[in-house]
Prior knowledge:
Layout: E1 31-37, H1 45-55, E2 60-66, H2 72-79, E3 85-90, E4 104-105, H3 107-112, E5 117-120, E6 126-129, H4 132-142, E7 151-155, H5 159-170, E8 175-179, H6 183-196, E9 201-204, E10 214-217, E11 241-244, H7 253-260, E12 264-266, H8 269-283
Parallel strand pairs: 1-2, 1-3, 4-6, 7-8, 7-10, 8-9, 10-11, 11-12
Antiparallel strand pairs: 3-5, 5-6
Amino acid sequence: xxxxxxxELRDGVRAIPGPMQVDRxxxxxxxxxxxxxxxxxAARSPQLFNRLFAEQxxxxxxxxxxxxxxxxxxxxxxARTIANxxxxxxxxxxxxxxxxxxxxxxxxxxxxxxLNIVRCRRDGRWVGATFDGLGCVLGMQWEGNxxxxxxxxxxxAGGAGRAIAFAIASAGARSLTIFDVDESRAIDLAAAxxxxxxxxxTRFGPPDPNGCxxxxxxxxxxxxxxxSMPVDPDRLNAGTIVIDxxxxxxxxxxxxxxxxxxxxxxxxxxxxxxxxxxxxxFLGFDYLPEGRQRPLTDAPLGTS
Length: 304
């Protein structure tokens, strides 16, 4: 037998070229965190978490856990038996479905009706929260795209879109128009946001970016080749700020088209870094990307 393990292409799994390095901080007492969703091809959270764990000498690891929509209940039943599981990051398509599987909801999750992170406490209780919205606003502020005082169009009223809608309105946006292919979902969200943040004029409306100061794509459109555009780029005004929450590709087709129209664009990375600041603090870690300012309002520091 050879002295090295050579990765092979199996069942569509990409082989990693070059020698494999065993991560020495993984032991029999390592704490486990998982990213739960499907698909996870564009996921960046495991890299960020594992880099942080290594830098801070934390005996923990974050791994991707591909769980299809119909398998969530079975996954949770099994995950509840894992004694060294400390937290779960929740992404599409489980952000709303996961609400019924936790024991307690953080105020952010109760407000939004969705969650993107679960703290698995040592007493067996699971606490769910969402930092999609706070992370989006923080990323926008870091990039000089503060929504305060602006007219915003939000496309997508799913788990991430719901959180972003509440956060944008609470951050002082002048107006917020929400569109979703499921019109009833967008109408219900607009009504809920209007009741929570009456100073922001919130309504359901078409995905027409003309006349908007800021356009935010909170749909998966753009992740796959051949996806339709979430808005018509030809309706964008020069100078409009276009924000895509998608990480990969970077830039997205929407951002590429917006640049050609003279728009300022922002990809998914600032939002996801902002999410990480809040989420890691919720899990008990202090994290701030290099060169970034700490948010004015932090998530509470989590405890086991």
